Structure formats: C-alpha cells, structure tokens
Amino acid sequence: MKTILSVLSAAVLMIALTVSMSGCIEPHPIVGTWETTYTYAEVALGDTSQISEFVSLDGFENVIMKETYTFENGSRYTCTLDVDAYEKAYREVMTETITDAYTALLEEYGLDMTIDEAMELDGLTWDELMDKEYFDSLREEAVTQGRFKITEDKIYLSAGLDYGVDENVYITYTLEDDKLTFKQQVGGEDTENVNSILPRVYTKIAS
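-> structure tokens emitted (207 positions)
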C-alpha cells in the first residue's frame, strides 16, 4: 500500500512540477498588443499628382487610421481598425475641401446656384465624394481574427480562425524592443497591394 501511495505521490509531484515549469516559459516577444497609425493620403489616394492639381491634400494628412494587432500566447491574433474615427475625420476634411473648391468656382464664373446644384451638373454625389464604398468595405474588415505562426524573421497569418496558415504566404519582419516592423509580404494574391503600404512600424502598447 505504501508503495502505491509513494508512486501516486511521485506522479502528482511530477505533474505539479511540469505545470509549474510550463508557467515559467517566457512567451514570444511578439505576444501583446501593437499599434500603428497611417493617413488616408498614404493609403487610399495612391498617386495624388493629378488630384493635387485641383484640390489641396494638406488636410488629408490629418485623416488618421489607427490599426491594432493583438497576438495571443496560443497562436491567435486579432487585427482591429478604428474605421469610425477614420471616416469622421475624412468627412470633415472632405466637406471643407469640396465646399471651398465649389465656392471658388461659382464665384469665379459668377454662377447663381448652390453647391449641391453645381455637383449635380457635374454628375457627382456626396456619397461618391465621401468615398462611402471605401469606408463600407473597411468596416466589413474592421475586426479580423486568425491564427499566426512565427519564425525568426517571418510571420504567417491565416485568413480566419477556421484556417491554418499558408506556409507559402508570409510577411518578413523585424522586432526590436517595442518596435515591430512588417517589411514585405511574400506570396499570396494580394501581395502587390499589401507591399504598396509596407513597411509599416507598430509600437507595443500592452504585453
């Protein structure tokens, strides 16, 4: 009987020790919450050479998107976009920009009509000018969740929680203290679009 109790006690001790040791394993430095910001002018407008001839783009530098990645200790990630604040700032800048542009045109040509009437003659609507479709598409992707796998210089992100990562699609990265830099995507159908906005630097805001 003592022998059996000794074996059971030893087994319990080993299990407790294993659990204790596993709790002491340091998580990968990428685990935590990372944040970056970028402007509408940087991402959505693309080549602004033709637009800037007619409209000042200075205000769009203040239309800022906040993007947050949270990597959990268990290979799960969440990416969140603050679309509402982004769109609100854009609408404020765009309303002022379009109003000023049309007011100047109406005065220059001595036209007695409202801005809405002038826009109608040009075949334009406020929804189009406010890039409603762009923001609606962003809102559909405001929260993205998936799995991740990380190596020394590559991070693999799945397209959803129901999928594993694609070993042929990854983003190269560097990690220095509280700075995470996504450098370049390799593989994937959207590589060209993704790389047009990379590199991007994220700052760690929570562990």
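Residues 4-23, 47-54 have pLDDT under 50 and may be disordered.
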